């Protein structure tokens, strides 16, 4: 499922695009935000299908080898452990997975060279070779092979990332999130189950409304929030403050003021963590210091109202 942190990041990116484009169409920008969220969930299914296409490619190679004019003993008697992996077969046969892929027109058929490259890299790995030569066949071993593949092979694959960006510009930076969702799905698989327990798009029905409200309010209150940021960065050269830092701080301020059920500390921690990965070096310390002062000022003005035990 898509985490609140991912939703916050999506909001920041949508806010960046909205402000940079100088658009006055908030509805259109919000529609783009929702489309970006939907595409991340698409990527979850796209990545889940990847191992299936790799296994199909492996089987096609075995079929071609069988039909050589002078096939070897190995060509006629290939090791079919990978192509008959029970976990991969379960993903391939799952009706919900097939239905979603078909509805959203997802798949890897247009990228055979990528499938070939990942397969050739996979078969050289120690864990794959150990799996193929173990002499055992079990659901547990099949599951471990697939889990290792998604854990070890893909996150820093520049070729894969280029292909994903070619498929959808909205998939930029989403690969890590999608892989985590796939790994969580695999961890929930049991031999006794006949279908896959897929992750829902959201943990809570309120999550999408949270993202839309956060974006809309952050866009409308951006200039107002900036006055607070300016107040506590007077000793800084404003031109040298990264725009992403300003966006992160403005969105954090919006969340703290707008959502009474979210503790201040939770909001602060989330945006500081986001800044570590999506802004400049040292931004997290800078943002932490500025937001602490902004929160103190907002509390003094009575603008932060939290409900529920332990929410301040």
Structure description:
This protein has helices spanning 4-20, 26-66, 73-76, 86-93, 95-103, 112-122, 126-132, 139-152, 158-167, 175-187, 207-220, 222-231, 243-258, 264-278, 283-300. It has 312 residues and is mainly alpha-helical.
**Rg calculated over all Cα atoms:** 24 Å
Q: Which strand-content bin applies to the residues?
A: under 5%
Mean pLDDT over the residues: 93
Report the major sheet: none
Overall body shape:
elongated
Q: What percent of residues adopt helix (DSSP H or I)?
A: 55-70%
Task: Supply database-style keywords.
single chain, 312 residues, mainly alpha, N-utilizing Substance Protein B Homolog, Chain A, 2 domains, 15 helices, elongated
Quick take:
This protein has helices at 4-20, 26-66, 73-76, 86-93, 95-103, 112-122, 126-132, 139-152, 158-167, 175-187, 207-220, 222-231, 243-258, 264-278, 283-300. It is mainly α.
Topology:
Layout: H1 4-20, H2 26-66, H3 73-76, H4 86-93, H5 95-103, H6 112-122, H7 126-132, H8 139-152, H9 158-167, H10 175-187, H11 207-220, H12 222-231, H13 243-258, H14 264-278, H15 283-300
